[in-house]
Amino acid sequence: MEESMLVPPWLEKLLSTNFFTVCKTHSDSARSECNMYCLDCNGDSFCFYCRSSRHKDHRVIQIRRSSYHDVVRVSEVQKVLDINGVQTYVINSARVLFLNERPQPKASSGTSSSTKGVSHICEICSRSLLDPFRFCSLGCKE
Predict the structure, then answer these.
(1) DSSP letter string over the chain?
(2) What phi-psi label fits residue 74: left (phi over 0), alpha (psi between -120 and 50 degrees) or beta?
(3) What's the pLDDT tens digit per position in 66-95?
(4) Where would you tag: which of 5, 11, 43, 123 has the fewest CB atoms within 10 A of its CB?
(5) Which pTM value belongs to this model?
């Protein structure tokens, strides 16, 4: 058995997609925010109504926001992607992971008290991690 899964063809497009824009087709509707992504179509983000009409039997994941950063629920993405080594967080009672890196500002001269006890950092962007994970986001693992 192969040690690591190959990067799926939809992952790079997912990581570069803009979410939380208003749907051009359903802009007059209440739930018209584009926060869905279809792994089968591998296109642009879309809204709740587009999902019902165009992606009914497709593999769709919902993107959420946390502090202006895009996250996805672990329960949705772990079925289609190897997320081993990626730091997860609990936000609004759901375990999530960040789509893209969130570089941590470098400490000014000397060692700051916030980084003193940090023993785990992201291998790509050097963000401090809470647990012995290797990456802070899917984008850093890619």
Answers:
(1) --SSPPPPTTHHHHHH---SPBPSSSTTSTT-B--EEETTT----B-HHHHHHH-TTS-EEEEEEETTEEEEEHHHHTTTS--TTB--EEETTEEEEESS--PPPPP-SS--TTTTT---B-TTT--B-SSS-SBSBHHHH-
(2) alpha
(3) 988 999 999 999 999 999 999 999 999 999
(4) 5
(5) 0.83
* CA 53 – CA 47 distance, rounded (Å): 10
Tokens coding 66: 């946390």
Q: pLDDT by residue (tens digit) across 88-115?
A: 999 999 999 999 998 776 665 444 444 4
Residues contacting 131, CB < 8 A, separation 6+: 87, 120
Burial 55-75 (b: 16+ CB within 10 A, else e): beeeebbebbeeeeebbbbbe
- Name the amino acid, one letter, at 106: K
Asked if 50 and 61 touch (Cβ cutoff 8 Å), the reply is no
Beta bridge partners of 69: 66
Coil, strand, or helix at residue 64?
Answer: strand
